[in-house]
Amino acid sequence: MEFLRQATWSPYLVGFAIGVLSWLSFLISRKALGTSTSYARTSGMIWQKYDRDLVLNMKYYQQYLPEIDWQWMLVIGIIIGSFISSLLSGEFSLTFLPVTEFESVLNQNFLGRIFSALAGGMLVGFGARWSGGCPSGHGISGTLQLSLSSWIAAICFFISGIAVALLLY
Amino acid sequence: MTAEKKSRLIKGLITGIIFGFLLQRGGATRYNVIIGQLMLQDFTVVKIIVTAIITGMIGIYFLLDRGLVELSPKNHSLRQVIPGGLIFGVGFALLGYCPGTIAGAAGQGSLDALIPGLIGITLGSGLYARFHENFEELLVKGSFEKPTLPERWKINHWKIIIPLAGILLALLLLLEFSGL
After folding, report:
1. Considering chain A, what percentage of its residues have pLDDT values greater than 90?
2. b/e for A60-95, b at 16 or more Cβ within 10 A?
3. DSSP code of residue A138
4. Which one, out of A43, A47, B82, B140, has a CA that is 20 to 30 A from the CA of B173?
5. Could you read off the pLDDT of A89-124 as tens digits, one per residue?
């Protein structure tokens, strides 16, 4: 029980468990772990409430239907799993400004954080769709299948992420 | 909804609950840990990803050899993964979360993730979907004929997995011994 209440587990233990989860996901669901397509489906689901014909005619949404699927439920599951984990360890807390040692107007000022989260989120969403994945889909699932394009994508995520972070903070 | 579809959705939900629990417990849903990684001061994220790749790669190819799983490797062109990946990275540094860990951050009570962060990702994804058809032809051009390295190099996958696992393990040891 003590183990379940620890604030953090070793990253190696967590990485190993995510690796095992990827086996189970392939075996049981015939799917690779990934998250970012779900946000495109969500935008389509919301958008089609306003202009159904436009959305149904978009090539992207013909390929990725604006509906709830296995991966969309996985994203909902992540929210629930993290909620359970943070409740058990006592780490759950409602905060808007992140606690960080890299203080900046982008994370310690209310408007600054709205800007950085909204603009950063838009670039993350746009970039993930452009590259076809995210650190889960490319960075874990693609690389472990030895997909060359996923290795390149994962390296690109970190190259510009590191460069921009070093400039900003 | 058919029973089959319902069972798929439940499988996705359960997989996600475990994934979210692990991401949160590993510290990867914290802004400070992700920015710390990009600042090259906290290597938690790299340790999690690299360990998951080593474990996942050995297990998945072991299962593949026994015919128990089918691969579904992503195959995108350089015109997709390079510019798309670089744009992603800029957003990653501003947002401090990725599409998986932001959901976990929302679950642990980080409202910056739940409100502006998720709105931003959903808007950005919708924007891409809107312009996808205008650029699709240009972007998809130059996709690799064979998505995976063993297919490209026409060698047995274990001849890649074993040395690659060795290199990744050496990287983890190097991080530990340099105190990172």
Report:
1. 99
2. bbeebebebbbbbbbbbbbbbbbbbbbebbebbeee
3. I
4. B82
5. 999 999 999 999 999 999 999 999 999 999 999 999
Average pLDDT over residues A4-21: 96
pTM of the model: 0.97
Q: Give the residue among B126, B118, B91, B87 at the shortest CA–CA distance from B102.
A: B118
Is pLDDT of B142 > 80? no
Q: From chain A, pick out residues whose CB is under 8 angstroms from the CB of B15.
A: 21, 24-25, 28-29, 33, 74, 77
Could you tell me if B168 lies within 8 Å of chain A, comparing CB atoms? no
Contact of B78 with chain A, judged by CB distance below 8 Å, is answered with: yes
CB atoms within 10 A of CB B67: 7
Q: What is the pLDDT of residues B42-101, one digit of tens each?
A: 999 999 999 999 999 999 999 999 999 999 998 899 999 999 999 999 999 999 999 999
Q: Which amino acid is at A19?
A: G
Neighboring chain A residues of B86 at a CB cutoff of 8 Å? 127, 156, 159-160
Q: Half-sphere exposure of residue A143, counting CA atoms within 13 Å on the CB side? A: 22
Whether the CB-CB separation of A70 and A31 falls below 8 Å is answered with yes
Closest partner residue to B112 (CB to CB) among A14, A36, A113 is A113
Does B47 contact chain A (CB < 8 Å)? yes
Cβ-Cβ contacts under 8 Å, B53 against chain A: 19, 140, 143-144
Q: What is the pLDDT of residue B139?
A: 86
Sign (positive/negative) of CA torsion B52, B58, B59, B64? positive
Please tell me whether the interface predicted TM-score (ipTM) of this complex is above 0.90: yes
Pick the residue from chain A with its C-alpha nearest to B134. Answer: A59
pLDDT more than 90, % of chain B: 89
Phi, psi angle pair for B177, to nearest 5°: -70, -25
